[in-house]
Each structure stands twice: as C-alpha cells, then as structure tokens.
Design goal:
Layout: E1 12-13, H1 14-21, H2 25-33, E2 40-41, E3 47-49, H3 51-65, H4 71-79, H5 83-87, H6 91-95, H7 98-101, H8 126-129, H9 134-145
The structure holds a DNA duplex (9 and 8 nucleotides).
Pfam family, one: MerR_1
Domain HTH merR-type: 11-80
Keywords: DNA-binding
Amino acid sequence: MFYEMPNDEPVYPISTAAKMLNISVHTLRMYEKENLIIPFRKSTNHRLYSISDIERIRCIRNAINESKISINGIKTIYSMMPCWEYIGCSDDERANCPAYNSHHEPCWAAKGKGTVCEKKECRNCDVYNKFSECSNIKSFIKNLTRVK
DNA sequence: CTTCTCACA
DNA sequence: TGTGAGCA
C-alpha cells in the first residue's frame, strides 16, 4: 500500500497539464498572466501544476465555455472574495489595502503594493484555494445568500 | 527534447 | 489564440 498523494502537490509540467485539459500551453500561460492561476515554479523557472490546479482550470474553462463568462468576469468574481475575513485584517488595514479596494482583480493580483499579505504565498492561501473547485464557489455564494 | 519570455502579420 | 525566435 502506498500513501495517497495530496491533491495540491505540484507534479505536472505544462505540457501534461495542457493535455489533461485539452487546451494549449499558450492558453495555460495566458491564464497565469491574467492572474487566474498561480502554478508552482521550479528552480529552473519551469511551471508545475497540481491536481487542484487542474480542477481550478477546469472550473474556469467551464465558466468560459458554458456560462459564457469572460476572463474579466472571472477576475471580478475572484475580486469579491472577502480576503480580509480569512486573513483577519483590521478595519484600518482593510481600508488601505489595494487588494480590498480592487473590484476588478483578485487580491493575489495586487501583491507588492503595501498589502498586508505582501509576504504571504498566495498559492498556499485560503483565499486563493477556496475557489479551486466550482462546488466551493457555489457553497460560498450559497452561504452569502442564506436568509437568517 | 521541453520550457521560458517576448513579440507580432 | 497561434506561431516563431533565441535561450537555458
């Protein structure tokens, strides 16, 4: 018996990930440039994707193809994540955070400009990982709309 | 042989 | 989205 491999282990090179998803490596790189995905980087600067990365991209593709949502639409949805709740920001930190104040880019795209999360690895952050599966997004919205 | 970045008819 | 140059 072998232990089960965690689904967040970065193991697939970009060519393999592309085949699994039936998309081009160029498209994969584009999604990264658009801040939809944060693949792992080896010391050689080569990208590695995990199972959850693949799932995340499947969710993105599904939104684009079936729901006719644009890249910008997806980014807008990501930008609505209540990151300050997960991180535990104070009211003051939140008010001055470029990530919180952007309604067009996900918080992990606002790195490097005085965010509280400056030092954090967004790839390992709950705010980023909560949306790795379509079902997570659904339950997230469900909780938002639940009537008390 | 694969991937990387950057550019573009 | 695709293709190609020029590297590592």
